[in-house]
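Researcher: Checking consistency across runs. Here is ABC transporter ATP-binding protein again:
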Amino acid sequence: MEPLTLEALPQTCCVCIKHVDRLFGKKQVLFNINLNIPYSQIFGILGPSGSGKTTLVKMIAGVDEATNGEVYVLDKKMPLLSILKEIGYMAQADALYGELTTAENLYFFASMFKMSYAKKQQRIKEVLDLVDLTSFINRQVKHFSGGMKRRLSLAIALLHEPPILILDEPTVGIDPVLRMSIWKELGKLRDNGTTIIVTTHVMDELERCDKLGMIRDGKLIASGSPGDLKARTSSSTIEEAFLHFIGEHR
Ligand SMILES: Nc1ncnc2c1ncn2[C@@H]1O[C@H](COP(=O)(O)OP(=O)(O)OP(=O)(O)O)[C@@H](O)[C@H]1O
């Protein structure tokens, strides 16, 4: 029997990013990113505007491809069409149909996944309740505020109960009370086995993540649990720790 090489062993991480660069023409926006995201954790990605967070999560979601290096999701090299049903992706720009109502948008997206009619109805009810849009079920989405569109996009990402959730700034424009209940739900999903990757600028949300990756100018400058990152830099906040790591990488 052939001896098993390290490469042939199954990955122990849900997402494995190896030596990833991303260039747009001559402009390089990600530089040699190496990152492992374990199963059943909330992994937060933070960094200043334009640092490359969205570019990175798009490659994990399989909607963009690395110029160099590899991205593996559930041991499969991305992008791969058959993995997409395992992922709930909430993009930064809402991809909703303005002419359709809330319910019509949800039924449309639900139809992309194999779900019985009864299951669709049940899930639509649950996710609408979670994002507090039940009373707007028959409202055309073009009349929604930015925060309401974000909430509907989140509901759509959660609809088919994917084992991996990728959320790009999910709580922008959402009030603090609802934000809290959404994070509670993310915690429950994590406890039930979902792997959640989230980009955010909100400090108290970063504290709720199990692990964080800090990106600056397309480079991963630090990763670890919030407690670990603060302890390593003798900081009392994530913000302070981030500034410390920026200083180290000047
Ligand atoms: N399709 C593209 N073509 C050219 N440049 C791009 C493209 N997509 C992203 N970029 C550039 O890549 C860099 C990183 O952008 P990205 O959206 O990943 O940053 P970000 O950290 O998510 O920012 P923000 O927090 O503002 O959303 C930016 O300089 C952006 O202009």
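Researcher: Does this match what you'd expect to see?
Model: One thing to look at in this run: The helical segments are 53-61, 102-110, 117-130, 146-158, 176-191, 203-207, 226-232, 238-248.
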